[in-house]
Every structure is written in structure tokens, then in C-alpha cells.
């Protein structure tokens, strides 16, 4: 089996929420909403398949927006996916889901449907839309009944970090198949994102304790430790050990940016990572993606430029989040502001 390559494909900016931490709306500068037309979608799809053919990868698509279901050719795109026997995940809103819609998504090949919960009811609805919290928890059942894996993602900031344990309880009670969280990337707006490194480590410790308690109880929710700083935490508590005989020139995990992942926007712009605001590497309507991979994408694979991580023994598995580093400090290779590792510890080589 060829290794997978994931495309986070934003087919439209159209959305029936205006989330305070959304990349599209939070800066207050986005005045025009874009959507690909059908020909552009077809061309993008085949450009992605061409890339995977050249580099021996199996394509996997994360179809999103905005809310992708609002695109007039959404279902036509799913038929194209089915015609090529390609499975996919949808990242969207809950408002247009019901049992029939979810059954149709499953028929077309949808494996996972990701929804967001960004706080308990009051906080989540402040971030997103009044009534969104209850609607999201309700639609987990629709997704599950169709045989699609329900995924709940939380964007964590200083504003909501104390509510994350409560969110875990809520999504477990609602029967979510997967729960994960990622950190907010500063992108404008009025969201306070200034967690300290100590505060973030305390959050990981609290969540780890809760995850292990649920696992001991036989809980079926899978807790995806998505943030790469989990590696640092698990190294410290002994749950992760550096393997023996590793190749010092290999990258075994950590950030997928320009490694096995890219983002395509409705404008056709290709980003090494959607969360890195200035990481445009080309345009899918103008460039062959395969030609960009060993040229402009290389700017995001120079791991020895990482100011802190390049000297850390966990570099091949962690590297924190360059998007958070860039959003905070303006440089992709700057220090992750929530990394608490002491550069004077035995983790770092001189």
C-alpha cells in the first residue's frame, strides 16, 4: 500500500457561522467569499491525483470550507470521489445534517465527519453561533447511525482552556467516536490566545488523566493526541521513549506541513499549511502541484533552521506547532510559545 497524502481542500468560503477564531473571518479583512466552479474543482482533483501518481502516494481528501455542503456542486464532487474509489473526510457544520444526509455521505465514501466544539454551551455559542453547541452534540448521533466516524475537534486558547475537561465529558456522553484538540493560531480578532507554556502543560496533564480514566472504564471514544507537544509531555512522564537505532536524518512524526499534507483554498492558492498565514507555495489553477513539491515546498522542510527544535532530541517526532510559532512570532522556524522544554536539560544537544 502506498503511503497516504492528505489534501485539505477548501471548496468554498460560504458558511452559516462567523467564528471568532476562523482564518477566513477573524482578521476582519475578508470582504469577498470565494467558491470554486465545477471545472476548477475537476481540474484541482486531477492535479492532486497527478501529484500522487508522480510521488507514489495514495490520495486522501479532507473536504471543507466554509461549510462544504453549502457548495452547489458538493454532491457532484462526492460522485467524482466515488467514481475513483477515493475515501474522504468532511470538516463542516452540523446544521444541514440529518439521518438521510448522513446515509448519503456514507454511500459516497465519507469515512469521518468532523465537527467543532470550542467550549461549554455559553462559550461555544459565543465563539460560533447561538444554538450551535446543542445542535453539534445532537448531530453526533446522526453521523454515528450512518456508520460514519464522528470526530469532535476543539480549538484551545486561554479563553476556553479551563473548559476542555468538561468538553471531554460532554462529547463522551454524546457518543463521539474521536476527540482531539489543537491550539488557536493568532490571526487577528479579539480572541485572547496567550496561554503560557506552563498553563498548556497543565492542560495536557489534566486531559491525560481524564483520557486514562475513561480508557480504564472501557470508554469507546478515541482520544487523538493531535498536538505534537503531547510527545514532549509523554517523554517526560515515560509514556514515550526515543527508539533505538533511529536514522538521525529521518523525520518519523510531528508536523505534516510540506511532508504528507497540503491545503488548497477556493481561490486555488496552495498552502503548505492553512494555519500558517503566509505559506502560499503556488496556485492549483496555474501550477502543476508535482512541480512545486521539490521547489517552493522545500522552504517548509528545512528542519535545521528551527531555532529551538533543531537541537532537541525529540525533533524527529515533535517540533511543536510551527503555525503557532509563526502566528505568535512571525517566523515559521521560531520557538513554539507553548513549548516548556528547558534548553539546558538533557533533551538538548550542544
Automatic annotation (TrEMBL):
Q: Which GO terms describe its molecular function?
A: 4 iron, 4 sulfur cluster binding; catalytic activity; metal ion binding
Is the keyword Calcium assigned to this protein?
A: no
The cofactor named in the record is: [4Fe-4S] cluster
- Show which residues constitute the signal peptide: none
Q: Where in the numbering of this chain does the Radical SAM core domain appear? A: 1-213
Lineage of origin? Bacteria, Bacillati, Bacillota, Clostridia, Lachnospirales
> In its keyword annotation, does this UniProt entry include Nucleotide-binding?
no
Specify the protein name. Answer: Radical SAM domain-containing protein
Which keywords are on file for this protein? 4Fe-4S, Iron, Iron-sulfur, Metal-binding, S-adenosyl-L-methionine
- Could you tell me which SUPFAM superfamilies the record lists for this protein? Radical SAM enzymes
Q: Pfam families, alphabetically?
A: Radical_SAM, SPASM
Q: Which domain of life is it from?
A: Bacteria
- Source organism of the structure: Butyrivibrio proteoclasticus (strain ATCC 51982 / DSM 14932 / B316) (Clostridium proteoclasticum)
Q: Which residues form a coiled coil?
A: none
Amino acid at each position: 500500500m502506498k503511503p497516504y497524502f492528505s489534501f485539505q481542500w477548501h471548496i468554498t468560503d460560504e458558511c452559516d457561522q462567523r467564528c471568532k477564531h476562523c482564518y477566513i473571518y477573524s482578521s476582519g479583512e475578508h470582504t469577498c467569499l470565494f467558491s470554486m466552479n465545477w471545472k476548477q474543482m475537476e481540474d484541482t482533483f486531477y492535479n492532486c491525483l497527478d501529484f500522487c501518481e508522480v510521488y507514489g502516494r495514495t490520495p486522501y481528501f479532507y473536504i471543507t470550507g466554509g461549510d462544504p455542503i453549502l457548495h452547489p456542486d458538493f454532491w457532484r464532487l462526492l460522485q467524482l470521489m466515488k467514481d475513483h474509489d477515493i475515501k474522504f473526510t468532511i470538516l463542516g457544520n452540523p446544521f444541514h445534517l440529518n439521518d438521510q444526509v448522513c446515509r448519503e455521505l456514507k454511500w459516497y465514501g465519507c469515512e469521518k465527519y468532523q465537527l467543532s466544539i470550542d467550549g461549554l454551551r455559553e462559550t461555544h455559542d459565543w465563539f460560533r453561533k447561538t444554538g450551535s453547541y446543542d445542535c453539534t452534540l445532537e448531530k453526533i448521533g446522526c453521523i454515528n447511525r450512518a456508520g460514519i466516524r464522528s470526530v469532535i475537534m476543539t480549538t484551545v486558547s486561554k479563553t476556553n482552556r479551563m473548559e476542555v475537561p468538561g468538553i471531554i465529558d460532554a462529547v463522551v456522553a454524546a457518543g463521539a467516536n474521536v476527540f482531539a484538540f489543537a491550539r488557536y493560531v493568532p490571526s487577528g480578532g479579539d480572541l485572547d490566545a496567550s496561554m503560557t507554556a506552563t498553563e498548556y502543560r497543565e492542560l495536557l496533564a489534566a486531559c491525560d488523566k481524564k483520557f486514562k480514566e475513561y480508557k480504564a472504564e472501557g470508554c469507546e471514544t478515541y482520544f487523538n493526541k493531535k498536538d505534537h507537544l503531547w510527545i514532549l509531555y509523554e517523554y517526560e512522564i515515560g509514556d514515550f521513549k526515543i527508539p533505538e537505532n533511529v536514522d538521525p536524518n529521518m523525520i518519523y512524526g510531528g508536523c505534516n506541513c510540506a511532508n504528507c499534507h497540503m491545503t488548497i483554498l477556493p481561490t486555488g492558492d496552495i498552502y503548505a499549511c492553512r494555519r500558517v498565514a503566509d505559506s502560499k507555495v503556488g496556485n492549483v489553477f496555474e501550477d502543476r502541484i508535482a512541480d512545486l513539491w521539490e521547489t517552493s515546498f522545500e522552504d517548509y522542510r528545512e528542519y535545521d533552521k528551527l531555532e529551538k527544535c533543531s537541537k532537541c532530541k525529540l525533533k524527529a517526532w515533535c517540533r511543536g506547532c510551527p503555525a503557532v510559532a509563526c502566528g505568535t512570532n512571525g517566523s515559521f522556524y521560531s520557538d513554539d510559545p507553548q513549548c516548556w522544554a528547558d534548553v539546558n536539560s538533557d533533551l538538548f544537544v550542544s
